[in-house]
Amino acid sequence: MSKNRIHEIIRVNQAGELGAIQIYKGQLAVLKRKEIAKELVEMLEKEKKHYEKFNNLIREYKVRPTALSPLWKRGAFLLGVVTAVLGKKSTMACTEAVEEVIIDHYENQSKYLKDKDKRLSKITKKFCKEEKEHLEIANTYDTGSDPIHNALKRGIKLISKLAIKASEKI
Ligand SMILES: [Fe+2]
Ligand SMILES: [Fe+2]
Q1: Which of 27, 99, 106, 168 has its CA 20 to 30 A from that of 46?
Q2: Domain coordinates of the chain in residue numbers?
Q3: Burial class (CB in 10 A: 0-12, 13-18, 19+), 118
Q4: Cα 87 to averaged position of ligand 2 atoms, centre (Å)
Q5: Whole-model pTM?
Q6: HSE on the CB side for 147, CA within 13 Å?
């Protein structure tokens, strides 16, 4: 049923944007005095706007938020801290991996919503575009193509996909 699917979409997106905020907060906790902090703050501010939007939508559509929020909150912050401690490559490798998953995710949602909820379709399309800008920022850096950084990116993508699946339902 499309109403259920729309609720899942709003639920997972609110959780995902919270996760994004927490990753950047975790990274900034480590890197706030570094040059790279400028980019992280810029992306963090965008994620806060995305989160705010889904907070409003969750109220408007009367969607139950995911019960997993406390887990994503801590887990994403930790991911931010760990990737920041590993260095600049890993910091931006994290953004690259997460955004590649999220861009696909928003693109699919926007397509699905097109003839079901025009407004939500537009919102997800706009956010998709803004996540692409974050991916572009990450790609101005060297995110590493050695086995360790590749494994890190694969791992983060897998975690992101699992987190998406879980947050839609739970
Ligand atoms: Fe976002
Ligand atoms: Fe983003």
Answers
A1: 168
A2: 2-169
A3: exposed
A4: 19
A5: 0.91
A6: 0
Identify the nearest ligand to the CA of 95 by its number. 2
Least distant ligand from the CA of 136? 2
Alpha-helix residue ranges (DSSP H) falling in the chain: 2-31, 37-60, 69-86, 88-113, 118-139, 147-169
Q: Which region holds residue 53: left if phi is over 0, alpha if psi is between -120 and 50, else beta?
A: alpha
Question: CA 79 to CA 24: how far, in whole Å?
Answer: 9
Distance 14 CA to ligand 1 centre (A): 9
Superfamily name with CATH number, domain 2-169: Ferritin, core subunit, four-helix bundle (1.20.1260.10)
pLDDT for 71-101, tens place per residue?
Answer: 999 999 999 999 999 999 999 999 999 999 9
Which residues contact residue 16 at a Cβ distance below 8 angstroms, ignoring those fewer than 6 apart?
A: 102, 105, 163, 164, 167
Neighbours of ion ligand 2 (CB under 5 A): 131, 134
